[in-house]
Amino acid sequence: MIEIVSRDRCIACDKCIEVCPTDVFERGPDGVPVLARQGDCQTCFMCEAYCPADALFVAPQSHRLPAGSELLDEARLAEQGRLGSYRAQIGWGKGRTPGAARAIGPALPGAGPRAPLTS
């Protein structure tokens, strides 16, 4: 279930709002998405996969975590490299270049044009 939207990392691109199949997010008054319907999260990881700033954390559990869970500690997750870790596992993480993994996923700012797909 989606657990964290990092206000420090978020660039307010609205990708998470756009890709969420169950409309979990709403744009906050400052532009940073908020978890408006967390209980509707299907734990599909789409938001985390598409977040270009690694500002989201989806816990693999499909239920809310108890208060005090280490998986709710944003600083600890960042230190462990777990914010955006799903994105990295599927090859959409930082450091990818056009043509790598057949340029799957959203274009990253400054990444240049995508390489053509070849078979």
UniProtKB/TrEMBL annotation:
It holds the Pfam family Fer4_10. The keyword Acetylation does not apply. Keywords: 4Fe-4S, Electron transport, Iron, Iron-sulfur, Metal-binding, Repeat, Transport. Residues 1-30, 31-61 form the 4Fe-4S ferredoxin-type domain. InterPro entries: 4Fe4S_Fe-S-bd, 4Fe4S_Fe_S_CS, Fe-S_Ferredoxin. Gene3D superfamilies: 3.30.70.20. The keyword Metal-binding applies. This is Ferredoxin family protein.
